[in-house]
Amino acid sequence: MRKLAFINRGLLICLAFLVLLLIGGTIYGVLLQTTSPRHTQIETLVISGGGQTFSGIGRLRVLTSDPQPGTVIIFVSFVYYPEDRAFSEELVLRVRNFREIIVDFIGSFSIAELQEKDEESLKSELLRRFNAILRLGQLETLNFSDFIII
After folding, report:
1. Model's pTM, two decimal places?
2. Domain ranges in the chain?
């Protein structure tokens, strides 16, 4: 009987500790969090002429259409103008769509087809597909910081 009471008391102390830890973590997360995890941060680089480089799409690893798929590592960026707030917000909201477009398009090729393709033709087709989903503005050029076929 005494051992059972001792175990119950120990379990209650552990439960109280976990509740305090949960409450403390919640308070820390709410009060000290500086950015919301629901918003994507835009990494930018200032370009002469007022534009900035949008690199929020990030580095992607795309599997090719080969029977034994290869991997393409690609990092796509483009110039935008942050003064146009509505268009800048649309770009952030479309990051997931941009990633899907890149994966679908690049993933539709085999390694051999990608090696034969001109990088400029790949850029122009991706640019066309990006602009097709944009409503508040259009992109002028795309850049590949990385385009590695493994």
Report:
1. 0.66
2. 1-34, 52-149
CATH architecture for segment(s) 52-149: 2-Layer Sandwich (3.30)
Q: How far is CA 98 from CA 17, 58, 67, 89, 131, in A?
A: 45, 10, 26, 14, 10
Distance CA 6, CA 10 (A): 6
Q: pLDDT digits over 102-120, tens only?
A: 999 999 999 999 999 989 9
- HSE of 4 in the Cβ direction (CA atoms, 13 Å)? 1
- If DSSP codes are grouped into helix, strand and coil, which group holds residue 117? coil
Question: Of 57, 135, 145, which is closest to residue 103 (Cα–Cα)?
Answer: 57
pLDDT per residue as tens digits for the range 18-43: 888 888 777 877 776 554 444 444 44
